[in-house]
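Anyone able to model this chain together with S-adenosylmethionine?
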Amino acid sequence: MTNLPEAFMDKMKGILGPEYAEFMGCFKNPPYQGLRVNTLKIAPEDFLSIAPFELKPVPWAEAGFYYGNEDRPGKHPYYYAGLYYIQEPSAMAPAELLGVKPGHKVLDLCAAPGGKSFQIAARLKGEGFLLSNEIDASRVIVLGENLERLGVRNVAITQETPGRLAAVFKNYFDRILVDAPCSGEGMFRKRPDMCSVWSYTLPDRLSVRQKSILKHAAEMLAPGGRMVYSTCTFSPEENEGVVDWFLKEHPNFSLVDDVRFRWFDRGVPEWASGNPELAKAYRLWPHKIKGEGHFMALFEKKADGGSSSLPLFYKRRGISKLPLEYERFVKEYMREPIEGYLYMRKEQLYWIPPSLPDLSGLKVLRPGLRLGTIKKGRFIPGHALAMASRKESVVQTIEFSSDSEEVVRYLEGFTLTGFDGKGWVLVTVDGYSLGWGKLSDGMLKNYYPKGLRRVLT
Ligand code: SAM
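re: yes, here you go
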């Protein structure tokens, strides 16, 4: 059983009263494990027919499933093919609450490692765009790798502070997710290591940061737009307290009561100022649902005043003519090239989401889908292009089955032998892209990115 901080237990006893014993009881049970099927690549029913583990639906999340505690989905080749993302079941709720529709302009302000960005992208179905932002320099790299593996095209990734983004995007986004940095009490059962960074004063200190992030997010939301604030903690200071403060400071915002989320408890007004509106927020308690502890609230901004428009990225910085090297590659190796607007940065060629605004002056990790590198008169296709392509879109494929030794050797980075043919080839597992290889003299040179290679056995 998790070794919980004494002061945390005393505090929970104080706020939960008679329910405390039941709450504590859940720490004796193992946490629930979940994954979300990547609907950008495969329909959930098709995944269920090939799934190597037994899956049961998470009631509040489209394409969300529970898997067993003995299963290791992170070691299966389908994980590397981006057929699913491993995500704690309660963490699937905030992006569902956000109500993203195809064509929306969406900001995920605190995005790494990217589970909720991925959910938003699946909802966009390739239309509109997602700006996925992460302030931390190493976490933003992981965010990029995850969204790349999942084959998300219409996403730009920035590494910015909320304040610097708010200076650019006034009244702009249709939907904003603020999945705030928090004290993580709701994860104590799943991540007992988080207990060691907790202290009694941490929630109060974090609430200052959370208010500042929310204030900037509010500036960026278009009139009539919706915004979700979520945490994975129990403390009232970071939950009802922050929402209460926000409503007082922003009279042009109100809480939305979304009745679809009947599985969850409600916010507790008495844990802040007593404002009855706070009961429109949601509390996910680990002793009441099959998931860890979370909090979320859905805000709407009053629809007075217009939303702002910004110059489009491709109009300002797109290239009008296809680079010759890329044109040659497309002719020889692609059946269905990715059509649209392109942008070159240093040697890198990107596809740009058509509705993406200009990001000048911001720290941009990627402004769209990285197609590849143009170097010494040649085009070298990027991993992102492989992961966003179907086997039908390329001329040559090598197909491995998920239980083959070759697929493991490919993912571990070995050169494979015994193949005919020449040139670029998309390597697949049971028909789903894994990465590039290059054929010559009977050998498959391995282009699976070095940084992603793993020992799987
Ligand atoms: N939404 C993510 C997901 O679903 O994978 C999890 C986000 S995590 C709860 C909160 C993130 O906020 C962290 O990655 C952290 O680096 C970032 N963060 C920390 N301080 C921040 C700040 N001042 N402004 C914006 N983001 C911040």
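Residues 8-17+89-301 form a domain with the Rossmann fold fold (CATH 3.40.50.150).
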